[in-house]
Structure formats: C-alpha cells, structure tokens
C-alpha cells in the first residue's frame, strides 16, 4: 500500500505546533510583562464603569 499523504501533512502540522509551544515557553519573561499591562487596562475599565 502507498502511504497516505494526508497523514504526512497532519504530522508536519503537529511538529509546527510543538515548535510554537516550545518558543512560547522560552518567552515566559515576556509573557509576565504582558500580564502586567493587562492588569492596568482592567483598572482603567473599572474606573469608567464606576462613573
């Protein structure tokens, strides 16, 4: 039987996803900085809501 090309395409996309996950784990310090910015935005929204 010939190998199914669809399976090969699926496995290569899984490898791309894994490489993205590994890259995100390496950038944990940058993610922490982004979380701080998100907290500031939430405070501003709360002030507008209380007006």
Automatic annotation (TrEMBL):
Residues 1-51 are annotated as: Disordered. Residues 24-51 have a biased composition (Acidic residues). It comes from the Eukaryota. This is BQ5605_C011g06655 protein. The lineage of its organism: Eukaryota, Fungi, Dikarya, Basidiomycota, Pucciniomycotina.
């Amino acid at each position: 039987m010939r190998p199914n090309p669809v399976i090969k395409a699926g496995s290569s996309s899984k490898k791309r996803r894994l490489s993205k996950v590994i890259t995100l784990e390496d950038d944990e310090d940058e993610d922490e900085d982004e979380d701080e910015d998100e907290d500031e935005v939430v405070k501003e929204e709360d002030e507008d809501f209380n007006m």
